[in-house]
Records
---
Amino acid sequence: MVVLAKGELEQIALPAARPPAADVRSVDLSAPAGPAREAAARALVAACEEHGFFRVTGHGVPVELARAAEAAAAGFFARPQGEKEEEAPTLGYGSKSIGGNGDLGWVEYLLLGVTPAGAVPVASASSSTLPCAAVAGGYSSSSAPTGPLRDLLDEYTVAVRRMACAVLELMAEGLGLGAGAGALARLVTRDDSDCMLRVNHYPPRPDQLGLGAPNLTGFGAHTDPQVISVLRSNGTSGLEIALPGAGGAWASVPPDRDAFFVNVGDTLQVLTNGRFRSVRHRVVVNSERSRVSMVFFGGPPPGERLAPLPQLLGDGRRSRYREFTWTEFKASGCRTRLGEDRLSRFEIASSKIRESLADEGMAQ
Ligand SMILES: O=C(O)CCC(=O)C(=O)O
Ligand SMILES: [Fe+2]
């Protein structure tokens, strides 16, 4: 259950309009080597350039495993509130608060850091998949006993991480990275990679709002900071992506229980020197049905130096971003609200402009 005070409910109310369906491209990860795989790699790159978002079929994650993990999570969310809160230390349970800076949503969640030993809870107080220094050093193993839900989520995470790696390998082929092609996938497969699993539960809109009442923000508009995020849901609508172009109109993602969806994250936008688009997205609660989503966030190791890949700079093309580490990005993002643009402070152009304004004594 998500409990919000009256003022809080107003804060997350949205107009009832429903955006048009997004035209989401599909990428078949199982395409055989040769022309079919080359076409899949091209489709993937085009989708990352245009929307920063695509659907993955032929992904190799057993559907039974995904459904079993989802059903176990749904069973957990159906338990009494007190019992769920007791599981904060073992499962990273939290509700309504997203990040540590006052963002609210009609959502409850589990948040687990991925370590070589399996998934471990991320402390609720600072829990966020957004950059935050509190988790920049990695996750300590929990001594709390694991249970069937944790075991299923562990198994699921291993399978989805493998798929994320396959996606990044296909991406590297599509980008023509050549000899350095393994570098992208390695970012999320190292033992110290900063990966996370987040299971979100959006209960149906509360009855007391009545008919004709506004929609609610489940998860406010944001970009994901990591390299890629890999998401599946129980087939309930609600996820929306911002379309390219001025204004960034919203489009709703048609639900699909068997496919996965991939978001380009901020880090991948930097690695591709802005060629790929870190997609803005949000979840709107407008349904009679609960939405359960499971999102794997593929993040780099803390000390990883992030800058555009040299192969993607091209002749004489300049880097749009200054180099920074993942730890630095997390520390700087820690103070931001959910919807803020966390990359702008790493853009070379804007920092150059700030420097010249400072030289002229015009900056504050
Ligand atoms: O729950 C969803 O469908 C998306 C959630 C999301 O964007 C996130 O956890 O970063
Ligand atoms: Fe997200």
---
Amino acid sequence: MTARINPSILTADFANLEHELDRIATADLVHVDIMDNHFVPNLTFGQRMVESLQRVSPLPLDVHLMIDDPDRWAPGYAEVGAFSVTFHAEAAADPVAIARRLRQIGARAGIAVKPGTDIRPYLELLPEFDQVLVMTVEPGFGGQSFMESTMPKLGLLREAVSASGLDVWLQVDGGITEQTITIAAEAGADTFVAGSSVYNVGEPASQIAALRAAAAAAHTH
Ligand SMILES: O=C(CO)[C@@H](O)[C@H](O)COP(=O)(O)O
Ligand SMILES: [Co+2]
């Protein structure tokens, strides 16, 4: 398994984002958290910011929408050039229609679930998606502690993906550190979002290398 490390710019310096993007150039994708103060109690930025980041980023953008009504808003993020657009199952009226639209525009389609949301109803929809995001904290803020109680969902997803033969990336987001990345990788994740452990602890490039090494050393099946 090749692990993907996607640093989240949520804890980066918003006044110097071009520089902050350059500091993570050895990662795989840039994770961009979009929050609307409705779906989650926090506010970040929107489509125009994604468009601007896309122009200067050395890496493709992995957009995580924590917003109400993704049926209306998600396609716009694909239209401005996001590599992947992941929306929350809890907020979507018609997840399959959104995913089809995203793919039609040319983005990878992702579906996310909060820690308390059952993944089983979504397993049969896997062919419609390129990635599934299992939140390992309550969405809304960086710097929270990893919830190991979410790991059984990764097991179910990994089993379903293997059985289907599909190439669906399994992503975790929240509280990922050199320690917790091992737990998530062994549970079946292959794509790891890390905010504070990349930007708030030493140099981002060495943090990315350490996370990569920890994921590679995990005993995956
Ligand atoms: O989506 C979110 C939070 O809702 C994340 O992408 C955070 O940005 C992760 O931050 P850390 O938990 O790694 O500090
Ligand atoms: Co996120």
